[in-house]
Amino acid sequence: MKILHYVDxxxxxxxxxxxxxxxxLESLGCDxxxxxxxxxxxxxxxxSSGLKVVEYKPVISSLPWLDVGFRDVLCALKPDIIHTRLSxxxxxxxxxxxxxxxxxxxxxxxxxxxxYYENVSQLLPCSTPVADFMAAQGISKSKMTVIPNAVDVGFxxxxxKIRNELRGREGFADGDxxxxxxxxxxxWKGFDDLVAAFSEFLKGQTVPEKFSxxxxxxxxxxxxxxxxxxxxxxxxxxxxxxxxxxxxxxLWASDIYIHPSWGDEAFGLSLLEAMASGLAVVASESGGMxxxxxxxxxxxxPRRDVTALSERMNxxxxxxxALTNASILRAKDFDAKIIAQKTFETYATFARxxxxxxxxxx
Length: 362
Fold this sequence. Notes:
Layout: E1 2-7, H1 15-27, E2 31-36, H2 42-48, E3 52-55, H3 68-77, E4 81-85, H4 87-100, E5 104-108, E6 122-125, H5 128-136, H6 153-156, H7 160-169, E7 177-182, H8 191-203, E8 211-216, H9 222-231, E9 238-242, H10 248-253, E10 256-259, H11 269-276, E11 280-284, H12 289-292, E12 299-301, H13 306-318, H14 320-332, H15 336-352
Parallel strand pairs: 1-2, 1-4, 2-3, 4-5, 5-6, 7-8, 7-10, 8-9, 10-11, 11-12
């Protein structure tokens, strides 16, 4: 099968698992070609890995009929299936796929508007909450196949040498516990709740100096978070790392990962990265994270419930060994090899059925 993968972007924060999925698809028999925007890092990354790449910049993403250049790419490559990522790619590929009678499958990893997917043959939401969101807009679930996002488990496997070196540089003693939260500092990510819960947690500790909280990331809420840390007298216990290109050393040096988001999460890739890194995890009851975790694999708490989060932090310390082992095992369920196999099986279903393109969703 020749698969044209269309990503209307030139940089991807999730490029590594995406690349691994493409490699696995090729090992399963797919002939992959990736279409992406010029510039940025994505095209060179894919090419350096031996993948075929075509660079294309849309005229106007919202007006797909103007993108005759994409039509020309399809006519030249003659793919059996188009697989899109991101809404603009689904909009453009859906239009031309229908015109040229090429099935279009669209991965959805956010909560987008239905209009971008009107001409798509099959939706591939990354979680049940995303599927429910699209169904609420009138799209039949028979036109959806849930395929989770992937994590490169081997890439995140804990490096104990780096862990020990970083903890040594940070002045950690044996038995010290480091919590970590990572992501973009926007209000709905809930990092203010994490700081408040950490403050409450410390009040119940006989030796608070044993505990630290690291925050990795940046964004518009950073100044507010720093002010909150100062107000709660946590300057000695909380460290802001800013944006880091490679978060793995911080994950490896930490012990417990906290995902405090109170907004709807389509999936929770950073949570999976922490689990693959060997951390016990605590997460809010938000969207796709509830599909990743149950109480045997991690600890969930009600959104915005600072007291409950503080209590889960205590519980995570008590159950750290069991939760760490459970995290690693659960992360393997989302390894790129497994997700690639599920994706390939979906392609094969389309190929076997000699699918005629579907009419627009009612």
